[in-house]
Amino acid sequence: MNRVVITGVGVISSLGQDVDTFWGNLLAGKSGISEIESFDVSQYPTKIASSVKDFNPEDYIDKREARRMDRFVQLAVAASLNALKSSGLNIQEDADPERVGVYVGSGIGGLSTWEEQHKILLEKGPKRVSPFFIPMMIANMASGQISMITGAKGPNSTAVTACATGTHSIGDSYKLIKYGEADVMICGGAEATISPTGVAGFCAMRAMSTRNDEPEKASRPFDKDRDGFIMGEGAGILILESLEHAQKRGAHIYAEVIGYGMSGDAHHMTEPDPAGAARCMVKAIKDAGIAPEEVDYINAHGTSTPVGDKSETMAIKKAFGDHAYKVAVSSTKSMTGHLLGAAGGVEAVICGLTLQNGIIPATVNLDNPDPELDLDYVPNVPRKSDVRIAMSNSFGFGGHNATLIFRKFEA
């Protein structure tokens, strides 16, 4: 079986459209959350989101082609090209294109395209609906477009598992390389649902924060005053390679992927079950061949919902026992917002950078600790730490759970 390493990272988010800017803002504790400007939110209980501002798809994609892509696909392509650039990989020269795959998911897909075309259907009739409507909207088109633009002809697929999408995409890609089905995978998640219907739907569920007067303080995972998540948009992409392939071309290695777990709650559409999340973490630890006590840092799912943060804390205690009180746990969603299907991709990038730089990003806005939540959540200030092994959790509606484990690279 092959060892699998991260050789490239790409992020498009409210905190930056390149990895250096993103990482700098994350360590500075900056928030990317602000009032929604893309449509009228006067009638919405939640008026804030973590939007990617000043994104120009034509910096990455031909203008004509960009017009035929939903925003989530544009974001996915941009992050993938950035990740490839950081990896130094030329697919045509440094690899066999038939052994380079793409696995980029989206929790919801082209929601804004759906909205636009549905409006045209109602106002102008079926003959005016765009012939590009379906290929712009469907969730697999991020992987499809990335493949076409980069020439990657290997395994090509898409996960759609709500907020676990990005993590499942990376985990499945890790397995493809581990078992010899591919040498390289472009993988992660993308999402762009800050739209009238998307925001209205989550508002109707009462899942989002209504702290509209303090956008930067609205996402407050594990805090007693948390009142819901903040929707984000963007993309997080990794370039995974077999260690042999990476070393052969002299690639820089950010970290190694060593474990992947997945489970189903079989419990409830939207309310998580701590037992399911704990089982997922235990599976990832077993897959990695390590002891629970070896995990130094957990990038938590940590969405800032009252139920979710409590459930994850209970799950960590169930999975780790006494070590739960010794492992550092932080939620970077306190700054990025919750990127839904892209969250796992962005947070995998964060884990790779944490291992490389020896700094754990903080959970900001943790001002009033919830007495029921008593783990080490790295409150408000990033922490220097020689992290050797990091875990990333993602839990999606429907009871979809995914966990990845990364290790500081040692040859």
TrEMBL record:
Domain Ketosynthase family 3 (KS3): 1-408
Broadest EC class assigned to this enzyme: transferase
InterPro entries hit by this protein: 3-oxoacyl-ACP_synth-2, Beta-ketoacyl_synthase, Ketoacyl_synth_AS, Ketoacyl_synth_C, Ketoacyl_synth_N, PKS_Beta-ketoAc_synthase_dom, Thiolase-like
A biological process from GO: fatty acid biosynthetic process
UniProt entry keywords in alphabetical sequence: Acyltransferase, Fatty acid biosynthesis, Fatty acid metabolism, Lipid biosynthesis, Lipid metabolism, Transferase
Gene Ontology CC terms: cytosol
Catalysed reaction equations from the record: (9Z)-hexadecenoyl-[ACP] + malonyl-[ACP] + H(+) = 3-oxo-(11Z)-octadecenoyl-[ACP] + holo-[ACP] + CO2; a fatty acyl-[ACP] + malonyl-[ACP] + H(+) = a 3-oxoacyl-[ACP] + holo-[ACP] + CO2
EC number: 2.3.1.179
Active-site annotation: 163
Tagged with keyword Zinc: no
Pathway assigned in UniProt: Lipid metabolism; fatty acid biosynthesis
Alphabetized SUPFAM superfamilies for the sequence: Thiolase-like (SSF53901)
MF annotations from Gene Ontology: 3-oxoacyl-[acyl-carrier-protein] synthase activity
Family recorded in the similarity comment: Belongs to the thiolase-like superfamily. Beta-ketoacyl-ACP synthases family.
Function according to Swiss-Prot or TrEMBL: Involved in the type II fatty acid elongation cycle. Catalyzes the elongation of a wide range of acyl-ACP by the addition of two carbons from malonyl-ACP to an acyl acceptor. Can efficiently catalyze the conversion of palmitoleoyl-ACP (cis-hexadec-9-enoyl-ACP) to cis-vaccenoyl-ACP (cis-octadec-11-enoyl-ACP), an essential step in the thermal regulation of fatty acid composition.
The protein's name: 3-oxoacyl-[acyl-carrier-protein] synthase 2
Organism: Paenibacillus lutrae
Taxonomic placement: Bacteria, Bacillati, Bacillota, Bacilli, Bacillales
